[in-house]
Amino acid sequence: MSRSSVSAVPVDSLSAEEARAEHERLGEALAEADRQYYQDDAPTLTDADYDALRRRYEALEAAHPALRTAESLSERVGAAPSGKFGKVTHAVPMLSLGNAFADEEVTDFVGRVRRFLGLEADAPVAMTAEPKIDGLSCSLRYVDGRLAVAATRGDGAVGEDVTANIRTIHEIPQVLKGAPEVLEVRGEVYLSHEDFRRINARQEERGLPPFANPRNAAAGSLRQLDPRITAERPLRFFAYAWGEIAPARPRDTQSGMVKWFDELGFPTNPLTVVCESAEELLAHYRRIGEMRATLGYDIDGVVYKVDDLALQARLGFVSRSPRWAIAHKFAAEKATTILDAIDIQVGRTGALTPVAKLRPVTVGGVVVSNATLHNEDYIKGIGTDGARFREHDIRVGDTVIVQRAGDVIPQVLDVVPEKRPADARAYAFPTTCPACGSPAIREEGEAVRRCTGGFACSAQALERLRHVVSRRVLDIEGLGAERLPFFYEDPDLPIREPADIFTLARRDQANLKKLKDKEGFGALSAKNLFDAIEASRTVPLDRLIAALGIRHVGETTARVLARAYGTWQAFHDAAVRVAEGDADTRHELDSLDQIGDAVIDALAAYFAEPRNRAMVERLVAELTVQEAEKPKSDTPVAGKTVVFTGSLEKMTRDEAKAMAERLGAKVAGSVSKKTDYVVAGPGAGSKLDKARDLGVIVMTEDEWFELVK
DNA sequence: GCGCCTCGAGTTCC
DNA sequence: CTCGAGGCGC
């Protein structure tokens, strides 16, 4: 049999061994064909032959699910960055939006915007309202009017290069007339209901499994390695946002920008309107809700944005999402099913989290079989659920109501008491760790029960490693949740602590290249893994601090610490000092924004433990740590610590803080001997007195503006 | 001391 | 995405 011919033996009549052999052979042939097609640009197979191979390969996996491993080609195509799509760093990050479900949250949002801007409670603020399309967000970069790069959202900072696939979308112009030198248009790629049905019919004709919903089909189509497949899928696009624009943005409102996109030839959503109050926004929300079923494409809510771009700039961002926009989601679809069991998972901090194992049920187009139960009290029904007191206690065997929160995360909402089996017993939450058997205790006043096993608990160790390699921390491609347990257990090349990741290649050399001979590993995947690890060896200080996994020190707090200390050595020394009980250092940390006793205690406890310190030393010895992005140093207030107090009249407190930080100053909450300036509005009290006692410079808002001008 | 806001730590499915 | 809790303003 030649490599490119396809066996006619029905896949389900093959033995497991025969199937495995054929699967492997086809995988190699397909990989080779891909290489020729993409790299050498010289295909040796016709499209039809390639498709036949591919279909046989997938049919084998369908009949023999054991073949569908992380190494499988079909997994590599829809899954995480496979190395086949290039990475694209967004010039301006693509952020996510905050959510609202109840009308009240929308009113709150509008109130928050007004308050932040210092407007009267009933002052009109122009806001746009537009349907929230349920597809994939994409950023299209045009240089000199030609489509240059198209990227998926990714983690918001770095996405995947899907330019070739985007070029197959007819609705997206390849060339723009009268566009600025650089223009990034952002919007949603989606599939209409009609086209979705057509694609699924074709999938079935070809004996392939149908897509669960239009969004999955759109995602699968956009992330095809083969643009010829994408071209068969009539994807559509709506433009609603932008990234970099140079030399200048031509309009000064959100609605004006969308109109401009329309003039440039992009599809824009016809249901976009400008409103002036929360009531008008809600009225439009209801109008769109009524039209939902007849729109012909999926939407999952309505997005509201402050229209004036100057106001958007003043409002700025909160951590990951803009303060000037919110997504008002439609109520999630609910379903009932039976709770078969309650599993306990152990997190990296030792937290025991109960997970509901459900009789599989379709909710919102996806089959759900697991759902979080949050904690011990949630199962008992202690506490409140919004306005209403929860009275359920959740028992194994119960019929439960499930929804996908924000249409994503499955959640057990309630039980149906009438359907409770007579023999159902109240759930007894374990008091020992299911992984290591150590006692699991609940601290006074805490909701979570934690395993006390610490270093002895393998579940915790594994979760800590998982945290280290995760995307928001060291982001090591090819060493994800799937592979880590395999390395953790491995007798030859174990990864038991973070430093082990970076010594892996060395140890492998010493062991005569064992990795590539391991099951599921080839020479290529071993090399890819080593390359990814090498690429992560240089880390920004904030990510390193986040990687330590200190309680209460996540992404944001790590960044605060990194900026405050600048270098690993400075941070490390401060942490050691505070662990030794140094009061000055404690005070210095306390003066940092958002850092208080709980964070300092956690930091001190971590560095007081010799095993942690040794582990960290070993890790840092393997890394090149980049100094933290220096705050601006060329402004009059750079490096100074400022405290705002009293009622500010020229700017809101948040604006004042954002402004000072932009200029490289640190904003502290309380006055200390480290404070350089106190900016006092009318009605300032004890902080002003303290500033005078300490001889700190006190100024008015006007004097502050004069200083920073 | 209370209440608001933000962050961290947990979670699912593709 | 949600919940709980820390930080901080009032």
UniProtKB/TrEMBL annotation:
GO terms for cellular component: cytosol. InterPro entries: BRCT_dom, BRCT_dom_sf, DisA/LigA_HHH, DNA_ligase, DNA_ligase_AS, DNA_ligase_CS, DNAligase_adenylation, DNAligase_N. The keyword Hydrolase does not apply. CDD domains: BRCT_DNA_ligase_like, LIGANc. Zn(2+) binds at C433, C436, C457. Residues 1-28 are annotated as: Disordered. SMART domains: BRCT, HhH1, LIGANc. It catalyses: NAD(+) + (deoxyribonucleotide)n-3'-hydroxyl + 5'-phospho-(deoxyribonucleotide)m = (deoxyribonucleotide)n+m + AMP + beta-nicotinamide D-nucleotide. It comes from the Bacteria. GO terms for biological process: DNA repair; DNA replication. The active site is at K132. This is DNA ligase. The lineage of its organism: Bacteria, Pseudomonadati, Pseudomonadota, Alphaproteobacteria, Hyphomicrobiales.
